[in-house]
Design goal:
Length: 326
C-alpha cells in the first residue's frame, strides 16, 4: 500500500478521458500518469516505483522497471500485443498481463480491409495522375474487384475473424490458417498447411501475435509461394513480414501491393526499404487509433486493473493465462 493505505496505479501513456473518469470514482486508488508516449526513462521510473498496477500503451516495461515494483499485482495493456512488456518476468512470479480484448478488433479489421481496397483499386497511382490532370491512367487501369478473389487470413483470432466477416461481405473466398483454431464458421475454409494457402491466395493478410516462431512468418520462401500479383497486408506487428524480402518482391513486381501499419523498427527509419518500394499503403501503427477504438481500449484496459484490485479479473482478458495455469 502507499501512504494512506491506497493502491497505486501508474498509467503510462494517455488513456481516453472516459477511462480516466472511471478511475476518479475510486478514491482509494492513487493514480499517477505519464502522459508522453516517449517520456524520459527517469520520469517513467519515478512514476512506476512502488506501483501495484501498471496500465501501459507503448512504453517498454522491462525487468529492471518491474523490479522496482515489489508489490505489483498486474500489468494491463492498452491493446492486445504484449511485445513491449516482459511477460516472462510476470509469468515467473504468477502475475497476470491483461489485454484489452475486444477493444481494437473492429478498428484493425476495417483498416486491413481498407488497405486491401486501396491497393486493389489502385487508388494511390490514380490519385497521382489525376492531380496532374493526366487521365491517361484510365488506359492503364490496374484496379480489380475483391469479389471472387481469394483471401488468406494468417491467424484466425479476434481480428482475423472480424476481417473474415468483412471480406465475406465483399464476396471474397476466405481461407484461414491458424494451427491453434479448429472450428471455423460457414464461408471460411481452413487450410492445414500455410504453403498451400499461400499458393491459392490473391490477397494475404497477417493477424498473428509476434512470437519467436512468427518472426518472420513471411520471408523470401513464403513470398515465392504466392502467385504473381498477390497483395500482402500486415496490420499485426513489425518483423512478422521480412521487410527486405517484401520490398524486393514489390520492386520485381511479384507482389502487386503491400499494405503496412507496422514496422520492424518504429518509427520507420529512412533506410527502411519499404518506404521507397512501389505500390504500398503505409500507416504509422495507427490501425487501432480510431476514436471508438481508443475509447474501447482505454475503458477495457483500466477496467482490467479495477477488476484485478477487486479480485474479479476475467480469465479471457489474461494474455499469459496458459503460463499461469488458468
Amino acid at each position: 500500500m502507499t501512504d494512506g493505505g491506497k493502491m497505486r496505479l501508474t498509467v503510462l501513456g494517455a488513456h481516453h478521458p472516459d477511462a480516466m473518469a472511471m478511475l476518479a470514482t475510486r478514491p482509494e486508488i492513487d493514480v499517477r500518469v505519464v502522459e508522453a508516449a516517449l517520456a524520459p526513462r527517469a520520469e517513467i521510473e519515478a512514476a512506476v516505483a512502488g506501483a501495484h498496477a501498471i496500465a501501459v500503451r507503448t512504453a517498454t516495461v522491462d525487468a529492471p522497471l518491474l523490479e522496482m515494483c515489489p508489490d505489483l499485482k498486474i500489468i494491463s495493456r492498452h491493446g492486445v500485443g504484449c511485445d513491449n512488456v516482459d511477460v516472462s518476468w510476470m509469468s515467473q512470479r504468477g502475475l497476470p498481463v491483461a489485454i484489452s480484448v475486444g477493444g481494437n478488433d473492429r478498428s484493425v479489421a476495417e483498416h486491413a480491409l481498407g488497405m486491401m481496397l486501396g491497393l486493389a483499386k489502385d487508388f494511390e497511382r490514380q490519385t497521382a495522375f489525376t492531380r496532374l490532370a493526366d487521365w491517361s491512367v484510365r488506359e492503364t487501369h490496374m484496379a480489380f474487384d475483391l469479389q471472387g478473389k481469394t483471401l488468406l487470413i494468417l491467424g484466425y483470432g479476434r481480428i482475423g475473424s472480424r476481417t473474415a466477416n468483412l471480406a465475406l461481405a465483399f464476396g471474397m473466398d476466405v481461407l484461414a490458417y491458424d494451427p491453434y483454431v479448429d472450428d471455423y464458421p460457414a464461408g471460411v475454409t481452413r487450410v492445414a498447411d500455410m504453403a498451400d494457402g499461400l499458393a491459392r491466395a490473391d490477397v494475404v493478410t497477417i493477424h498473428v501475435p509476434k512470437y519467436r516462431e512468427t518472426t518472420p512468418l513471411i520471408g523470401k520462401a513464403e513470398i515465392a509461394a504466392m502467385p504473381p500479383g498477390t497483395i500482402l497486408i500486415n496490420c499485426a506487428r513489425g518483423g512478422i513480414a521480412d521487410e527486405a524480402a517484401v520490398a524486393k518482391a514489390l520492386q520485381d513486381g511479384h507482389l502487386a501491393g503491400y499494405g503496412c501499419d507496422v514496422f520492424a523498427e518504429e518509427p520507420a527509419t529512412p533506410d527502411n526499404p519499404i518506404l521507397s518500394a512501389p505500390n504500398t499503403i503505409l500507416t504509422p501503427h495507427s490501425a487501432a487509433m480510431t476514436p471508438q477504438g481508443m475509447r474501447r481500449m482505454g475503458m477495457i484496459g483500466l477496467q482490467n486493473v479495477l477488476d484485478c484490485f477487486d479480485g474479479c479479473l476475467k480469465p479471457e482478458m489474461i494474455f499469459n493465462r496458459k503460463e499461469l495455469g488458468l
